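note to self: dont lose this again. the chain is below, predicted strucutre after it. 419 aa total, dont forget to put it in the shared folder this time
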Amino acid sequence: NIRYDYLLHSLPVGERILVNDTKPSGLKCAYALNVKRDARLDVTYKMGDAKALDSISLDKDLESALKTIDIEIENLKLLKEGLIKESLDSKQLENYPKASPLSKALDLITSTKGRVVFTGMGKSGIIAKKIVSSLASTGTPSFFIHPSEASHGDLGMLKDKDLVVAISNSGESKELVDVLAYCKKFRLPLISITKNKDSTLGKAGNVVLSLPSGKEACPLNLAPTSSTTATLVLGDILTVRLMERRNFSKAKFENFHPGGKLGFSLLQVSSIMHKDDALPLLHEKASLKDALLEMTLKRLGCVGFVNDLGYLIGILTDGDLRRILNRDFLDKDISLLMTKDPITLAPTTLVATALDLMQAKEITSIFILEDKKPIGVINIHDCLKSCGISDKIGFKDQSLNKDLASTDKTLDKASLNKS
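---
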């Protein structure tokens, strides 16, 4: 009855545990835990087949990969424990409870009137650029300044209301000295991200976000591996919490991601629909000749029909016309030819949803209604163009992302993804 995920994350790589289990069929089996864990497969053997279990071994490449993941996960656990400890310590002060370093850093970022300027050397600089990208795309104006270039004129990019975030695992990157001195001279608030609070960087910061002191995944314990992962996750923690504090909405996200699938997944049909004079609409008493002329004039492959109240009651498409060409249709009433109660959408419907619906129903045009009245129309070509897909491609073959799920419990998810 031990939780499998507990065993999965608590035992070291290579540990061999036999778990007796009874399948619904009644067959008793044993799992080689390391095989399940490494290959994510239910590898079963009959009880008593010890020879088969003992023969299980990992190839060197997989063994190294799993060892790296375990070391990095362990370092993330240290980061999590450190954040919890700092939060508890700050609240246990009897006379003057303080905010935790994480909360202080978030307060500084949300209250700054300027930009959030990141800097860092080497691998720390690369991670800083990624954090900058995440923050800028979620509503926090940010940019990166290279510490060496800063010493040769780029310090002039800093303004008096900016906030500086400096990253150095050791806290002793000599290239950061001029940046730190500039912050002190012009009283720019500084957030230091380092594993050593007593380092030059740690002592210079108004707030210090501590990195864990776990071992690197590098076999020499030298190349930045676990430390850069922890720094990246710390950046994700800041990004996610800032989004929550600022109530960063999907609409705002769309404004920052107009291109690509991210923007498309949040785009509403009201942004791409044809409306006003471009809307192919006729009264329900119109003739078929009128419908043909309207369809030809508006060039959208369809025409909608409204009643005296302006409510949409039907639609006639070029496909409908092709299907009735062999009939004696010229003398028929238009109400007998149009599709009544057609599929419609609200203006707030996502384009991705509209495209999925068109695929499922095998239709190419949909009217957009507001209070039962048509305010626009979209077709398959509009949807395809909005996501950068050529309208020459068959829309049945397109696979498009749904809404992106919001990030939550960043540390736990990072650990889960690595496992």
